[in-house]
C-alpha cells in the first residue's frame, strides 16, 4: 500500500515547491488581472502591476478577498472564465444575505477529485475501501467533493448523504463500510446510536473517519476513536477556496497537511492584517494557484490557525496547519475575554463524566455578560447521587475559570436532552443585544 497518492508533489523539497508556486502565482495574477474586473480594479487601487510579483514574498502586496467581496459580486462577478466553461456551481446557504456562488471548470473538478483522493490516501484509504459519505449533497461542497475524490481513488462510495441514522447504521453493517465521512458532531451521534442499538463494534469494519466542516477538539477526537474504534482525521476545506481537499491530517495527526502545490497559505493578524511568522496563531488566508473558474487572491477565511514548516514524520514536506480552534467572526467576547466554543468543549471532556454535547448560552444582565454552559451528563453520572453531581459542577466551573479566566454557570442536563445535529452542531445561543 502506498503512503502517497502523488509522491512527487507531496514530498518535494521546499525549494522545488517554491519554484512551482511562484510560476503558478504569476500565471494566476495575470489571469485575474485580465479576466476579472474586480481584481484588476483592486490591483490598480494598490498600484500593483503584473511585473511587481517577482517572488513569493511579494504576495503580501496583493489585496485581500473577503466574503463581502464575494457577495458584492454575486453571482458570477469573480468568475475568471466565460460562464459557458463552468460545468458545476456550488453555493452557500445564503442565510445571512446573498449566497456565495463558486464555479468549477472541467479541469477544476479533475483537480478537486485528485486532491480529495490524495486526502483519502493520506488517512490510509485504498481502492479496497468502502467510503460511507454522510456529508450533505447538493449546493454544499462536502458531499460531492468527497464523492468524486473517492471515485478518483477507485474506492467504493456509498452516497447516503446526511440523516436517516438507522439506515446509515444498517448500511454500515451490510456494506462493510471502512471509512466514514461526515461532521464530527454527526459521527458522535452515530456512535451513540450504534451503542444504543447494542451493536458490537467487532461486527463493523470501520477503520477510519474523515471529519470536518466544523471546528472540533482533540478531546472529541478521543471520544470518537473510542466510541467507534477508528482513527479520526480532521479534514479542511471551504467552498470559497475549493471544498474538502485543501488539507488533511496524516497518520501522525500532527497538524493538517496543506496541498501547497495548489494553495498558498498565510497566517495574518486579523486586526493589523500583517502576515505572522510560523507557529503564531492568527487568521488563515489562502490563495488558489490552479483553479480556473473561481480563483481567489488572499481569501480571508476567518478561521483561526497556525502554520508549521517542519517536515512531517510521514515524509511529506508541505506546511501543516493547526486544527481550527475557532473563527474570528464567531469568536465570543465575554467580559472582554476571547472565548472559542472549542476551548470550552476541550475542558468539558477532560473529566470523562459528561457527554461531548453542550450548549453555550450568553446573555447580558445588568451590563454584565453572563455565560451559562449546558452540559449533558453521561448515563452513569446521571444516576449518581446529588452530592456527586455537585462535585462535578464545581470541578467544571473551577476548570473553566482556570483555563478561560472567566466564571460561568454550569447547568448539568439529562443524557440526550440537548438537540442533535445531522450537520453542523449549533453550540451557541447569544441573547445579548450588542
Features:
alpha/beta; 4-stranded antiparallel β-sheet; EC 6.2.1.30; 434 residues; phenylacetate-CoA ligase activity; 24% strand; single chain; GMP Synthetase, Chain A, domain 3; Rossmann fold; 9-stranded mixed β-sheet
What can you tell me about this protein's structure?
This protein has two domains: 1-329, ANL, N-terminal domain (Rossmann fold, 3-Layer(aba) Sandwich); 332-430, GMP Synthetase, Chain A, domain 3, CATH 3.30.300.30. Helices cover 32% and strands 24% of the residues. It is built from twelve helices and 21 strands. The chain has helices at 7-10, 14-35, 37-45, 67-72, 106-122, 141-153, 165-175, 184-196, 218-228, 341-350, 379-382, 386-404; strands at residues 88-91, 101-104, 130-133, 156-158, 179-182, 208-211, 231-238, 243-249, 256-258, 263-268, 282-288, 299-305, 307-308, 320-321, 326-327, 332-334, 337-339, 354-365, 368-377, 409-413, 428-430. β5, α8 (184-196) and β6 (208-211) form a beta-alpha-beta unit. The protein is globular and about 70 Å long. The termini are far apart. The relative contact order is 0.11. The model has no long low-confidence stretch (mean pLDDT 92).
What's the SSE blueprint?
Elements (H helix, E strand, L loop, with lengths): L6 H4 L3 H22 L1 H9 L21 H6 L15 E4 L9 E4 L1 H17 L7 E4 L7 H13 L2 E3 L6 H11 L3 E4 L1 H13 L11 E4 L6 H11 L2 E8 L4 E7 L6 E3 L4 E6 L13 E7 L10 E7 L1 E2 L11 E2 L4 E2 L4 E3 L2 E3 L1 H10 L3 E12 L2 E10 L1 H4 L3 H19 L4 E5 L14 E3 L4
Parallel strand pairs: 3-4, 3-5, 5-6, 6-7, 18-21, 19-20
Antiparallel strand pairs: 1-2, 7-8, 8-9, 9-14, 10-11, 11-12, 12-15, 13-14, 16-17, 18-19
Helix pairs in contact: 2-3, 5-6, 8-9, 10-12
